[in-house]
């Protein structure tokens, strides 16, 4: 829905007012950031599958995602 909203097809998106307010919060995220976050999550999944410490991995993931969104 967010991609449709951003691409100029807002009339095709049927949302409630609550959903629209949440969509506006995420409206600042672009495709490059989504791609970077996807890569970060995939890397974290790989490290967890290799028996890494989940607490450290998720903390690191949180800081990296926060840095990506700044």
Fold and architecture overview:
The protein has helices at 2-6, 17-25, 31-49, 54-69. By secondary structure, the chain is mainly alpha-helical. Helix 3 runs antiparallel to helix 4 (54-69). The longest helix has 19 residues, at 31-49. The mean pLDDT is 86.
Strand content: under 5%
Number of helical regions: 4
- State the total count of DSSP E strands: 0
Overall SS class:
mainly alpha
What is the CA-based Rg, rounded? 16 Å
Distance from N terminus to C terminus (CA atoms, Å) equals 23 Å
Task: Please give the share of residues in helix.
Answer: over 70%
Main beta-sheet strand count, sense and barrel state = none
Mean pLDDT over all positions = 86
Shape: elongated
Order of helices and strands: HHHH
Which parts are unreliable, with pLDDT below 50 for 5 consecutive residues or more?
A: none
Describe the structure concisely.
The chain is mainly α and 70 residues long.
Can you tag this structure with a few keywords?
70 residues; mainly alpha
Helix-strand layout with pairing:
Elements: H1 2-6, H2 17-25, H3 31-49, H4 54-69
């Amino acid at each position: 829905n967010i991609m449709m909203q951003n691409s100029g097809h807002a009339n095709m998106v049927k949302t409630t007012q609550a959903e629209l307010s949440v969509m506006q919060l995420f409206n600042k995220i672009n495709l490059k950031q989504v791609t970077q976050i996807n890569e970060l999550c995939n890397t974290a999944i790989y490290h967890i599958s290799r028996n890494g410490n989940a607490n450290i991995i998720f903390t690191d993931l949180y800081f990296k995602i926060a840095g990506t969104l700044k």
